[in-house]
Structure formats: C-alpha cells, structure tokens
Amino acid sequence: MADEKSEEISIGTKLLMAGTAACIADFVTFPLDTAKVRMQISGESRAILMSSSEGSVLAVKAVQPGLIQTITTLVKNEGFRKLYGGLSAGLQRQMCFASVRLGLYDSTKIIYADFFQGKSNKEQALHDAPIGAGVRILAGMTTGALAVLFAQPTDVVKVRMQAGNSLKYASTLQAYKNIAVHEGVKGLWRGTFPNVTRNVIINVAEIVCYDIVKDELLKSGIFSNGVPCHLTAAIVAGFCATLTASPVDVVKTRYMNSKPGEYKSGIDTALRMLHNEGPSCFYKGFVPSFTRLVSWNIVLWLTYEQIQLHTKH
C-alpha cells in the first residue's frame, strides 16, 4: 500500500489522513450501518405467542425483515434522521479508530519487516524485496487490536444510539456519561473482547487484502496506480471483510447493546444465540453489511489514496 514517497509523510499526517477518509466513508454509508444494527438485534425480541383453535399456545418467531423493509420501517416509524442516529459517535469512532488501524499500518508493517525479514532500513523494506503476507497480516492484527482498545467507548455509544436507544440520551456526551454512571467505566468497554476479535479479522480482511490485491494488480501490469486499481482492490477487500467478520460483528452488536447482566461474556452471547436462533443468526444483516462494507471500502480507499496523492504534491 505504501509507495515510493509514502515515508515522506509524517505519522501525524497519516493519522489525520486516515481518520478524515474514514469519516467521509462513514457519513456516506451510515444509513446502511444503522439498518445492519437493527437487523442484527432483531432476534432479541421475544417470540409472538399465538393460541390455536384447540386452546394450545404456540410460540412463533417474527419474520426477519430485509434491508429495504428495515430502512422503510425505520424512516416511517422514527423519521429519516434516525438513519443517522449515533452519527456523531460514529465519526468520533472513526477519527480515533481508523487513524490508528490504517494510519499506523504502513509504519507497523515496516517495523515487522525489519524485525522478521531482516531489512536493514525502511527504504529496503519497502522497495528492494517484497514484504511477506505473514508480516502484513501481523501488522494488520496489531493496529486493529490497538485501535479497538483506544476507541471502544465510541463504538459502544454508536451501537446503543443506532439500536434505537437515542431516546435515552440527549446527546452522545450524555450517553458516555450515563453509561459510565449506571454501568461503571467498564460499561464503556463492554464487548471489548468480541470487538477486538472482530476488528482484528476485519482489519486483516480490509487493509491487508487491499494492500496485497493492489500490489498484485500493479505487478500484473493490468492497472496503473490509479482509480480503477484502487476501486477493484476496494471491492475485493469489502467482500472479504463482510464474509469473515459478520459472525463476530453480530455477536459484538448483541453484546454491546445488551442490558447489564443479560450476557456473561461475548462467548456466552454467541452460544445463546446459536442455541436460540440457529447458525443463520450469525449472518443476520449480511446484505446491508456487505452493501455497506463494499461501499465504505470504495469511498475510504478512493478518498485516502487521493488525499495521499495531493498531500505528496
């Protein structure tokens, strides 16, 4: 992903570039993310009880609404603005989260290449020999985990407000305060383990996949280092991210949106979901998640590459 002049850009500038690009991508795709969250938590509602003609009572599960129906129902019942419920927390999250996971990726990759592949300096690590996939994966796992530990409270607030809990909070600042007061500081880091797991996976699927696919496309000579290359790599990265991260993402959303004591841990959440709803529950919201992640990756990478290009010149 780094090119010939990427190391001329300071770490601080890289962090700002990554956070800005991610905020733009988040703003464009936020309604899809809200729909995804609503679909993921839909299984939390109790089954509908129906009486048969013989007098027996049957428990019937509500039908899972699709993407269009979810968005339509949300707008009809709660208004268009609810599609952007939690946007400020989402932008806060991206500025904290993406700046670390993306902004530090190239630098972390070079450090690991120096350590594991014996590169004597940054220039050699970037250009004289290819950096192995293992080094890239390790760099993606590292920055993904660090980003979650740093930005987890913003993710908790974003999920709560997207799930329809914004009626409890007048603002995102009040949400931070209320969660800390009623659930303790630990409440702001609720779901950290499943979120670390999810974001380590998604960071590798998104950033490392984009990095490798882009390099291979450039080596093949099919594309030059321009928009078509970036677009193709972004679509592949978005698909890989959705496929690999959806199960952990659903568990993370359920756990972070749960009441105190409802679930013991992320693992307990996953086991109870499997028992009560079956394996398919781990891919609830797959369509909006796929639509959103592919769209998000396209906007992110095209924006990031263009910002990077203009920053150098």
UniProtKB/TrEMBL annotation:
Protein location: Membrane
Superkingdom to which the source organism belongs: Eukaryota
GO CC terms in record: membrane
Membrane topology: Multi-pass membrane protein
InterPro entries in the record: MCP, MCP_dom_sf, MCP_transmembrane, Mito_Metabolite_Transporter
Principal location class: membrane
Pfam families: Mito_carr
Keywords for this protein: Membrane, Repeat, Transmembrane, Transmembrane helix, Transport
Chain positions of Solcar repeats: 13-111, 131-216, 225-310
PANTHER family: MITOCHONDRIAL DICARBOXYLATE CARRIER-RELATED
Family: Belongs to the mitochondrial carrier (TC 2.A.29) family.
Protein name, entry field: Uncharacterized protein
